[in-house]
Design a protein that fits this description.
- The chain is built from 12 helices and no strands.
- The protein is mainly alpha-helical.
- Helix 9 runs parallel beside helix 10.
- The longest helix has 38 residues.
- The protein is elongated and about 75 Å long.
Length: 300
Amino acid sequence: MADESRAMMGQATVARSLTAGRHRGVWARLPLVPLLLLGLFVLVALLADLLALASPYDTALRLRFAPPFWMDGGTLSHPLGTDSLGRDILSRLIFGARISLLVGLAAVALGGVVGTILGLVAGFYGGWLDVVIMRAADAMFSLPTILLAMLLAVTFGPGLDNLVLVLALVLWARFARLVRAETLTCKVRDYVALARVGGCSSPRLILVHIFPNVLNPLVVLATLQVGYVVVVEASLSFLGAGVPPPIPTWGTMISEGLEHITAGWWLSVFPGVAVVLLVLSVNLLGDWLRDYLDPKRRRR
């Protein structure tokens, strides 16, 4: 008995050591730079009213095209310069971060919920429901994303709510196709067959036995789509089909800056850099999640 107790204690110690090692390995492999960048953008978006040095809407024509503070004629009251109407570039960047993150998260959430529900229904029930849902998804994939988004944006009209709805309509097919494929794989597994034999209803099978196994790839796809939505939103704003002015968005700032690129390069460069950094940080985080949540990739 004493030997068995010592053996069990030794096994417990080894198990705790392995668990602690895995947790340390996770923390060691975290993408720190993307997380710090993403955390900075989120913090800036949340505290925009406190961090902005000036109102993003106030104009001052006597200060138009003021350069960044390190150039001749620059001032610390406008660290990144001003635009063609004398509005502070840094303040507009800060409030633009709020718009980009709000649109990205809301559109991915709405499109992800709709696409997940339709994908679960199509994969589990099959038949004519599967055919109708997947043909609708194929129709969404057949059109260029920007062209489709512009068509929907013009149809629904300008506005932040309409833009979120348009981007969600563009995104749902991506989630539906992924969830359907995972559902088709899960519903033929033994644990689903045993639950069905045990009298489990179809809604319970979907919610309790299938959906949790779809969650990992769903989280990865949602993370990657946030960066994609930020790019699409900036493109629509650049083309004049996004959030209407005077609301500051990065795409609108880039578009306005191109008209005065010779007089003020900073009008387009700084919002362009902000878009690149945000999208890059989100995509790197999504790549890390994909590797971490996939056991095969994690072992390799």
